[in-house]
Amino acid sequence: MTVSDVVYSIVSIISTFFMYAAILVFLQCFYDNGIRWSRKKGAAFLVCALVQSLVSLFFGEHDILSILFAAVYIFIAVCDCKGKRIRRALRFLISYIIVSWSVALACLFGFIYLLPGFDILSENSSQTEGLLIYLISGIFFAVVFFYLEKRLVRRDIFIRCGKRENLVIAAYCLITFVILEMAVISETEAGTARIALTAFAFVCFAAIVTFPAFFFYGRLSSYYRRANELHETYMQFQLEHFRQYKAAQEETARFRHDIKNNLQCMNELLSSGKDAEASQYLSELIDEVRQLSPEYVSGDEILDCIISSKASVMKREGIDFTLDGVIPGGLGWSAIDVCNVFANALDNAIESCMNMPADKRYISLSIKSSEQFRYIRIANCVAEAVDTEKLFNESGGYTSKKHTAGHGMGTYSIRRTVEKYGGVVRAECTDDAFTLELIVNKSSSF
Questions:
Q1: Higher confidence at residue 387 or residue 322?
Q2: Dihedral of alpha carbons 294, 300, 301, 303, sign
Q3: Residue 364 has what pLDDT?
Q4: Are 332 and 444 contacting, i.e. CB atoms less than 8 angstroms apart?
Q5: Are residues 51 and 190 in the same domain?
Q6: What range does the domain containing 54 cover?
Q7: Residue finishing a domain among 225, 242, 266
Q8: Contact yes or no for 121/112 (Cβ under 8 A)
Q9: Which of the residue ranges 126-135, 172-181, 275-284, 349-358 has the most confident prediction, judged by mean pLDDT?
Q10: Which of 79, 144, 195, 239 makes an SS bond possible with 22, Cβ 3.0 to 4.6 Å?
């Protein structure tokens, strides 16, 4: 074993490790949050890459060995998944094929046409060429892995890829396959055809490099656009709550200013023996005091903001809304997470009620607490039953709207947020009623 063999093996191990690690975090961030990256999986990938390199070094590279090791990598990726392992294994396999095509395309055009003298299609291709291929691909996968791991995985951010993104990737794979075939066929070309192929190769190589960058940028832009909308919604709730609070303070100040005169009037009525008039005056005074109190009190300040804002919409649309129970000490969640869960839930409930006759529209929010858990239940009328399993599935995107673009992530976002705090989401639906239940541990807070 020479020094060059050792260097080749080390670079191939690192490149293989980062390729499978990048595939895993890519799936976790954009397709299936049930596939999770962990240090244990990273260590297993590294050991598997080491064994694969040693086997290849002593026994040579064979297709059957590559297939067997690919199966091992896939098993490591999905071994700790809760259910649907076959589907997730197929996703990992498809991603591996896509990545293999991409790297092969980059190598073919990059080394055959852009760097004359390299001939990786030849059976006599040197170890130096293979080392350079592993080195470049390893750097590419390392950049992808560290970027996604730092920006998304550590923050537990999941950005679902929709149908449009899937179509783009499918088209990319098809074009890649066609170009690969063209590269093999055109290897014998020379002269003017060679120059044209070199120019074409440069364009293809640039597309291979820039496609992931544009893809990640597009998905991150979509995520942060949604996050900004959520922040804006939260700020609107806060502003509305502040306006209501200011109005209540002004009413309270006016009441305090007038209370002395009111009490004096009552005293005069009682002194004059006008008990009925005094009783009527007292009833009116109590009603005025009652109006100074908030109409809805949940125990959580941010939730109160959301309920107050949505209550005005429900009142305008003729929806009967009831709130039963309070949350002692509040939820203990971040303001954005409270907004994410309850604004989405109430919006969905209001939208469902709008499909019902005015006399049958209702939404109820009940809150109960035990020593360890909080039980929150939101119920509303529905025109027809919905599939609750699809509503909260891991890939998200299910919606009953006719126009699906930009919709379908609210319910999945509710589940993700509640699970973030160690809670459980359950949903039941009959032909005329939908019930959303949140069970959260009291000690769960961030």
A1: 322
A2: negative
A3: 92
A4: yes
A5: yes
A6: 3-225
A7: 225
A8: yes
A9: 349-358
A10: 144
Tokens of 280: 């009527």
CA-closest candidate to residue 29, choices 150, 156, 140: 156
Considering the domain boundaries, does residue 278 fall inside one? no
Mark whether 214 and 123 lie in a shared domain.
yes
Distances (CA, A) of 48 to 6, 73, 116, 393, 411: 17, 7, 35, 32, 39
Confidence of residue 376 (pLDDT cuts 50, 70, 90): very high
Of 202, 225, 248, the domain-final residue:
225
Q: Write out pLDDT tens, residues 30-50.
A: 887 778 898 999 999 999 999
